[in-house]
Amino acid sequence: MRNALLAAGFLLCSLIATGTASAQAGNGALDLTARITPTAARPEPVRQFTFYVLTKSYEDITKEVEANDAPTDRDKFISDLKVSDQLKDWLKGHDELDLTSPNLDKMLTPDDILKVPEFLLAYQRANSGGVTYGIPKPKYTDADKTDHPDRYQKQHDEYLAALKKFIQSHPESMSGVELELSGINPQSKWALLRTERQKRIQQATPALAQTKYLAAQFDTDLDGHGAVNLPAGNYWVSTLNLEAGAGDAQLRWDVPIAIQNGRSTQLALTNLNAIDAHKKPDTDEAHGSSKN
């Protein structure tokens, strides 16, 4: 009986040891060093900085968040503006949303001035008070529109025809029109919508990374070294949206890494595999030229 119990105990210990060895065989390790090289200086270790090991690249996590927070549709934004239908049509047909742009006068044609009420009023104001010599003046009055509609329409059409010829002969008279459009300029509201969306994305992305895709995190020591044990698999070593700095260099990392069973994988983070935080993204989101 005693021998049987001893044999059973030995078998149980063997099974436990075998299971532990098997579990350890499925693990690996990450051994990381991080250094930044400022311009014309020696490399400096990234000291006491938190790195995150993710199961998905931070770039793709950002795209996931962006997909769930779609940008405002440009045409819908224009349709909701409290301006004339003619101006809405003009905005939808042009890349420019900033009506105070110094280049606006070069984008406008005489027909634009005549057809869009806001442009016509801005042109009249910019050239009022004797600023522009020889500019046609309307002979009709608002009262004629009700009391003498035929005369009003005739004089209105004559004025527009004369004004078109004048603009064609004096294109310089359109200079300064943009200064009269600041009160209805949609660019500031558009830029605010884009900025608010970008802030939401910047706040939501690191939160999602740490709650859904975080495998491990660790801090580097004073030598810029850090290590962590991980199950075998593919990961990304990331700083999320945080920047590590040294001198004039401000860097972030989002580097893929493969962890193998029973092996320690070495990873050196440097300027070469980093993202320059000072480099502006290749996007037109902040500008009125974006049609998304």
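The above is record 1. Record 2 follows with the same two-line structure.
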Amino acid sequence: MSLGAIALQVPIDETIAAAVVGIIVLIILASSIKVIREYERVVVFRLGRLIGAKGPGVIIILPVIDRFRKIDLRLLTLDVPKQRIITKDNVTVDVDAVVYFRVNDANQAVVKVQDYVLSSSLLAQTTMRDVIGQVEFDEVLTKREELNKKLQSILDDITEPWGIKVSAVSIKDVAIAAEMQRAIAKQAEAEREKRSRIIMAEGELIASEKMAKAAVFYSKHIAAMRLRELQTWAEIAREKNMIVVTGGDSQNLGPLLGIINEKIKGSQTNISNNSNEEQSSSA
């Protein structure tokens, strides 16, 4: 008997039923086989009880009785929205940050917390408000690295039972009101003015000390004082559009020359006396 004859003998209803059953079986098998990537894990619950995390590779999920949840193990970036915070010294600032974390234990991330991403985001917001509120505004600007490490440590300790590891926390921006910006600009300007005045005062102190020493030296050496005066005139005379007018003190040049001549004559007399003494001693 041929196949065609056999097929004609089989009722049409049974053929359709067998085809439907075959299609259902194929659908069930297709839905039962799952392919899990290397960076993913599947947490399986069988009749409500935790079976555990499976993957990577090909896994089989029993229809109807198994429920699963897929978890990404890659490093996730959580953008903490801008928070308006009042610092310890009553300065209102707007601070936003970025949190980098990943799932260490997929089972804990599913069992311990309903939505670990949302929970981590809300926790980061409240923790940042608490930490920034305990420091002054200057510390927020100058000690940002220390604040990042403190935030990371607090978040990591709280999220560790959830199977989450916080890798890093970075404060992105610190914004203040326009009135506070003007106040800070005035403060910085006053600080610069203070430093400039201190530097100028130190320079004047050193200059006055040097001038006092120079005055003592000039009082003992009149000729040096006169030479300095002549040097000053020479420096002024380099500008061709200027006229040097000397005062009455310029007449002191004559006595100065007389003193110099007396010194020269005295030295010559001492030389002649020394030569006479040598001659008499030799005789």
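Residues 95 and 174 are 5 Å apart (CA to CA).
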